[in-house]
Recover the amino acids of this structure.
């Protein structure tokens, strides 16, 4: 096969060269996980759930095959159902789990392998043929137990580039950080949470490649160009040489950018801008500090709630928030309250499947409907506020009523804490994310009820332009520089400033170097983005005068299309900082 170039959407910057590892291959490696006596019933339940799920899957397949190909073909799956109903196998797993106190997937795989070994030694040909049934059903059960992908991702033994149809935020969260040097997926958009996690993990990534899982084979050599959104499979020597050289150049630029770490984020005419980082997990603080952030502008607290079988209690949340507060103090940390839904799901809260999850029962809507879950989080944040400079921010506010309702619940929690004499900071700022057009257009009203705004452009753009943020087919329409988006941003900033409150931006747009100067000129007070993108934003802010940026923003608003605006901004950036534009899509 010659060299193949695939074009996708850049998700996390950098250039990486390595071997492909196709996730959907079925090579299971599972870690031995010890469980406690108390955890045993949960493990047994998980096993039973996986068996039920597997049974339903097989029944569905049987039905479909019978319809499409005839009943006799469908009957093959009756043999699979028999394996599932084998009480000896099931009993053996449960007994072994009780005895050894080991997680179910490990025990199950052990028992399964024993079965296969026994069957393979049998003289009876019919029974020997059952091995493939057992194997097939076994893998299905394993997949349902944990999600095969997650097992593989956590257990990789060598450095690889992961190739997969999709990776959910929970898949990326368990990724073995040392051994995953890049990833590329068929689906996904620039602001999908998979892309956001890739940046947080500092793993070069390209998403939305449409057919990479069909083109690439295990072990193929790949170049992942996370700057331009390209993947090159089986590159020619010429291409490899070019990318090795570019990788060096890029790493040199990165080193240069890191030297800005301790310099203030201010314009040439001395206007100070707050440069903050977005994080998903407390472990990212090291990276936040290494990249010179002034604070945390968005702590996506919902990552606490995924990848687990129960809800985090107050104590657990308190510890995590207090740790972040202490490590960052006196720098501010904005904790965004639970924002589940959209492409971040959580099975145990039983949020029903919806036709339009991004416009559904999510974020603040969910919290207002489940005040008990919301209050646990608010109490944990308030208690942690005694240990640093915490601020609270509500996601997906659509109008003043929701903001008032959320604040009323917060007041209740404060009174309860006061009554119990539990310490918390009296002046925690409370802000609203502006990420729904209705909130943007009523930001003048809401500015009276909030201490600050943070513009969530990932959602604001998808709602304003009616473009699903994770759908690669319409990614070309997802335009941060669209005049409609810039007008909304301008209105939000002007409304906030009229009321004397500050405005930040925590969507991915805040880390887009092409638009930094325009946002600066529109009057944005704070830029919050993935730690790895901060140095570049700082370099740009330090290269312009605010007065000049204002002129450029004013001019940008006169163009008719997003493309013209982006081109204009890119040209201006190139004039001032030519080295930055290399390798950008
Ligand atoms: C946003 O919508 O811009 C945002 C920052 O929130 P999230 O990406 O978590 O939806
Ligand atoms: Mg959002």
């Amino acid at each position: 096969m010659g060299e193949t170039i695939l074009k996708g959407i850049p998700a996390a910057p950098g250039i990486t060269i390595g071997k492909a590892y196709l996730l959907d291959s079925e090579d299971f490696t599972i870690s031995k996980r010890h469980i406690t006596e108390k955890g045993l019933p949960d493990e047994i339940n998980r096993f039973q759930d996986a068996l039920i799920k597997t049974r339903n899957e097989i029944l569905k397949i049987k039905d479909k095959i019978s319809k499409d190909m005839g009943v006799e073909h469908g009957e093959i799956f009756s043999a699979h159902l028999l394996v599932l109903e084998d009480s000896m196998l099931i009993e053996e797993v449960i007994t072994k789990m009780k005895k050894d106190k080991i997680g179910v997937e490990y025990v199950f795989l052990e028992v399964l392998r024993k079965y296969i070994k026994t069957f393979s030694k049998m003289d009876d040909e019919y029974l020997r043929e059952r091995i493939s049934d057992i194997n097939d059903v076994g893998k299905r059960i394993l997949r349902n137990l944990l999600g095969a992908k997650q097992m593989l991702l956590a257990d990789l033994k060598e450095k690889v580039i992961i190739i997969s149809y999709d990776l959910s935020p929970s898949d990326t969260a368990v990724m073995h950080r040392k051994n995953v040097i890049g990833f590329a997926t068929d689906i996904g958009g620039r602001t999908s949470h998979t892309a956001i996690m890739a940046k947080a993990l500092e793993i070069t990534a390209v998403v939305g490649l449409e057919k990479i899982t069909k083109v690439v084979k295990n072990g193929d050599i790949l170049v992942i160009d996370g700057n331009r959104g390209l993947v090159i499979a089986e590159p020619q020597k010429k291409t490899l040489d070019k990318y090795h050289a570019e990788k060096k150049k890029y790493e040199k630029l990165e080193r240069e950018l890191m030297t800005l770490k301790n310099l203030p984020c201010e314009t040439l005419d001395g206007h100070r801008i707050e440069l903050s980082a977005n994080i998903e997990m407390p472990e990212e603080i090291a990276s936040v500090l290494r990249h010179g952030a002034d604070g945390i502008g968005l702590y996506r607290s919902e990552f606490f709630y995924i990848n687990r079988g129960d809800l985090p209690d107050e104590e657990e949340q308190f510890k995590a928030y207090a740790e972040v507060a202490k490590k960052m103090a006196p720098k501010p940390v904005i904790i965004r309250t639970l924002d589940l839904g959209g492409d971040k799901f959580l099975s145990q809260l039983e949020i029903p499947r919806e036709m339009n999850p991004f416009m559904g029962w999510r974020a603040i809507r969910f919290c207002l409907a489940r005040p008990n879950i919301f209050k646990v989080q608010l109490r944990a944040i308030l208690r942690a506020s005694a240990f640093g400079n915490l601020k609270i921010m509500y996601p997906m506010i659509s109008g003043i009523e929701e903001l008032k309702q959320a604040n009323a619940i917060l007041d209740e929690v404060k009174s309860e804490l006061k009554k119990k004499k539990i310490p918390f900071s009296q002046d925690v700022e409370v802000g609203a994310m502006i990420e729904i057009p209705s909130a943007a257009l009523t930001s003048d009203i809401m500015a009276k009820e909030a201490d600050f705004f943070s513009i969530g452009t990932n959602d604001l753009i998808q709602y304003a332009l009616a473009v699903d943020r994770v759908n690669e087919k319409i990614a070309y329409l997802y335009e941060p520089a669209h005049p409609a988006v810039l007008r909304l941003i301008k209105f939000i900033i002007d409304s906030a400033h009229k009321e004397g409150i500050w405005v930040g931006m925590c969507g991915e747009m805040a880390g887009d170097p092409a638009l930094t100067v325009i946002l600066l000129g529109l009057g944005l007070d704070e830029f919050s983005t993935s730690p790895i993108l901060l140095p570049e934003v700082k370099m740009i802010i330090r290269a312009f005068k605010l007065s000049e940026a204002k002129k450029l923003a004013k001019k940008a608003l006169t163009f008719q299309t997003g493309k013209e605006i982006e081109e204009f901004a890119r040209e201006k950036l190139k004039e001032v900082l030519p080295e930055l534009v290399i390798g950008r899509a």
Notes: The radius of gyration is 26 Å. Residues 395, 435, 456, 458-459 surround magnesium ion (ligand 2) (CB under 6 Å). The chain has a mean pLDDT of 88.
